Amino acid sequence: LLSIGMAALSLLCRGASNTQQTQNAMSYVPYIVYGLLLATLAIALFLAHRLARRGEAVPFFCGRQAQTLSAGVFMQDEQANHQRSRRVDAKDIALMMGITVLYALLAYYHLGSAVSPQTSFTFRQTSETVVFDLCEAQDDFRMLYMEGINDGNNSFTVQTSEDGESWGTPISCATNGGTMFQWFYVNGYNAVDARSLRGRYVLLTALAPGLTLFETVFRTADGTPLPVTAVDSAGRDASALVDEPDTLSGEPSWYNGMYFDEIYHARTGYEHLHGLQPYEISHPPLGKVLMMIGIKLFGMTPFGWRFMGAVMGVLMLPVMYLLAKQLTKRTDLSCIAMALLALDSMHFTQTRIATIDSYVVFFIMVMYLFMIRYVQMSFFREPLWKTLIPLGLSGLFMGFAWASKWTGIYASAGLAFLFFLTVYWRAREYFGAEDREKVRGFARKLAITLGCCVVFFVAVPLVIYYCSYYWQMLPSGGLTVQKVLDLQITMFNYHNDLEATHSFASPWYEWPLIVRPMWYYSGADFMPANMVSSISCMGNPAVWWTGLAALIVCLWRLAAERKVNQGMFIVAVGFASQYLPWVLISRCTFIYHYFASVSFLILAIVFVLERIRARDARAFKGTSIFLLAAAAVLFAMFYPLESGMPVARSYAMLLRWFNWYNF
Asked: Which residues contact 590 (CB under 8 A, 6 or more apart)?
């Protein structure tokens, strides 16, 4: 609710008729935010007090006890397993839908402009020109343009004229691969610093063949659009350069153009859709193929290229609920896990930018969900074919993870460990059983299971991985095994030999403490002096720091107790498979590489809360309420600096908690 309130405030401020009104409105943001925070804390304390007075007879939500396993035998307590319900009921569905819908409203709010130029003009030769006629002479105007895909030296010059015959001094405009699908002023970062132009005619000259522009827009000094026509000197129709002037509203920003690595991944989605040879081939293509779907549905617009990533972020929430439900069999703990993921800052930011991390993280979560389901089954209790269903689905989504990013392969190590450990449990059940009738057919069932796993976890993922290259290979003659194999070598060498440095690079040991978050966007150049607009990638301190402490507690419990909690053990395996491989990586790394580990941190929190509840129900209620309130408060506080929302610089300065500022 706090986040939605901030979004509504942003909408009202954007509706202000002038910059001064916007500044006046935004100056109240710090006071409004802290007022909301105090109100939230007051409500949380009141609820905690009321719930505490009711005692243990009135639970915070509802649920049942969690199971433990014998550390010496690692066999499931069959009786306890049957007594506890893992079934998703109407209450579970209502909670999942409610939280998911609320989060989706926030995630899709101001995701990106749904309008952007769709037609382009490409210059075919050096010195090819286009003349723009503004219908009448202008004393002071600005020119903006949106670039297409321009690799190499595809720069151009701009000249003005009063009569269309005598032209002024050329103004150079550089283009490169990092400035595509973004709006720029001619020789300026904003309307104030942009080059002031004068005249009726504008001459644009390409300095090399291949220059592609999607649109040009002309404005007076106060931002009023100017009517314009375009005539190419070579006789070609250049109207595509001026046919969509309404696609730019306001100033250039992340909202109406690409930012950070969208220039690689969203570009590749566009190239796949139009049958072009992709530029970015350093990662598997499935994530970019899925981006292509959003671009196909909504056009090559910021909303279109970010749409599918946001879908993945929304779908992660019910998957998080089901993961917690599968492990704890408790509705209250599942709801807490889902809410914590919804309030995590990195989950919010990372799934709203058109990069591939949201896809691989979603598939990792789903493949673990099905593997956990298999671990909690036994072909001695259920029909063999039923146990193969979650195995097959786990392998299917493992293939999707592989085809999205190689970090999915790290997670596969955890799956393999859990599977073979489950095989060991089944073997111990067989050899330790007194009644062999209950465990008969072990060898046959195990052989069938292992044979199916070769299909599920080897053949199926390899086929998915191979087929995901269809769109990437299409422009170069089609899909072949040899080309895919050669590309894997190229990808490996690229990452292995990468020695790039970055001002926001962060080693693996800094991630859990949020020492060095990532800065994706800073729009200070397009904002008034006392305002900022930025997008950062960081974790919610309430979620990450509590999760780190909870993980340490889980590891200590696993080492110290004779009876090992199966859920804690699975969480430890999942976290280790995602986090520990980065210890061995010497290349430049960033905090967003920790994204896949966050779901396991949240599950660790859930198991610690479960232990608290077993000892003291009141403490569980109070701790849960406090944690959720703290996470909500921190999410709302940092929301302006994670969403690009214009905010007063004075408020942004209050949030200088970490080493990541760029304003």
From this structure: 502, 504, 505, 506, 518, 537
Which is it for strands 121-122 and 212-220: parallel, antiparallel or unpaired? antiparallel
Q: Which of 568, 85, 547, 98 is nearest to 331 (CA)?
A: 85
Please check whether residue 288 is in contact with residue 313, taking contact to mean a CB–CB distance below 8 angstroms. no
- Name the pLDDT band for 650 (thresholds 50, 70, 90): confident
Contact 306/110 with Cβ under 8 angstroms? no
DSSP string spanning 74-104? ----HHHHHHS-----HHHHHHHHHHHHHHH
In whole angstroms, what is the distance from residue 527 CA to residue 568 CA?
A: 48
CB of 380 closer than 8 Å to CB of 343: no
Residue type (1 letter), 14: R
Which residues are bridge partners to 157 per DSSP? Answer: 172, 205
Tell me the pLDDT band of 231, cut-offs 50, 70 and 90.
confident
3-state secondary structure of 516: coil
Half-sphere exposure of 123 toward its Cβ, with a 13 Å CA cutoff?
Answer: 25
DSSP 208-237: STT-EEEEEEEEETTS-B---EEEETTS--
Rounded alpha-carbon distances, angstroms, from residue 266 to 10, 254, 257: 27, 13, 11
Write out pLDDT tens, residues 588-635: 889 999 999 999 999 999 999 999 999 999 999 999 999 999 999 999
Q: To the nearest whole number, what is the mean pLDDT of the chain?
A: 84
CA distances from 600 to 70, 141, 367 (A): 22, 55, 13
Q: Which residues contact 584 (CB under 8 A, 6 or more apart)?
A: none
Please check the confidence at residue 658 and state whether its pLDDT lies above 90: no
Q: Tens digit of pLDDT for each residue in 187-210? A: 876 666 788 899 999 999 999 888
pLDDT at 43: 59
**C-alpha Rg value of the chain to the nearest Å:** 28
CA nearest to 596, candidates 278, 392, 356, 253: 356
Select from 366, 360, 369, 362 the least CA-distant residue to 401.
360
Residue 304: name the closest of 175, 475, 181, 120 by CA.
181
d(CA 327, CA 319): 12
- Residue 662 pLDDT class (50, 70, 90 cuts): low
Q: What is the pLDDT of residue 76?
A: 43
